[in-house]
User: Which sequence fits this backbone?
């Protein structure tokens, strides 16, 4: 089953959409706790498939950046610790996985979040970034 993976502004981590209610979403964290939370109308919720990264040409979808990271890391988590890495180390890593990135419009915090999200997804078993694993699929019954 293809799933919708979401980010909530102000809340750490990533979430998997379980159900949609009347004005709220029921979500589950992707970490080992599998804690269920709800997001209301006031929460800023973003689907990862709607996110892209700035480049000097056209913006690159986040899923393609994750695929590039997967190829560079051979499917493993990123060894670089984003919390301890310097700005130069972060952008050096980004330029390896996102050639032609626009470093004027991308902040170090964006690169940290990119690495953290990738590591969360790999740890949770999500690795088919190119095949659109996170896109919603209609099922016929």
Assistant:
């Amino acid at each position: 089953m293809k799933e919708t993976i979401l980010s909530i502004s102000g809340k750490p981590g990533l979430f998997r959409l379980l159900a949609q209610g009347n004005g709220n979403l029921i979500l589950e964290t992707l970490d080992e706790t599998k804690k269920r939370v709800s997001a209301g109308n006031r929460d800023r919720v973003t689907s990862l498939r709607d996110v892209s990264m700035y480049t000097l040409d056209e913006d690159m979808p986040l899923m393609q950046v994750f695929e590039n990271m997967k190829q560079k890391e051979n499917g493993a988590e990123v060894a670089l610790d984003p919390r301890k890495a310097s700005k130069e180390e972060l952008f050096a890593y980004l330029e390896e996985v996102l050639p032609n990135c626009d470093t004027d419009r991308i902040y170090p915090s964006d690169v940290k979040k990119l690495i953290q999200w990738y590591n969360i997804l790999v740890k949770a078993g999500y690795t088919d970034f190119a095949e659109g694993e996170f896109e919603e699929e209609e099922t016929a019954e």
Q: What stands out?
A: The two ends are 14 Å apart (CA to CA). The longest helix spans residues 108-123. The mean pLDDT is 89.
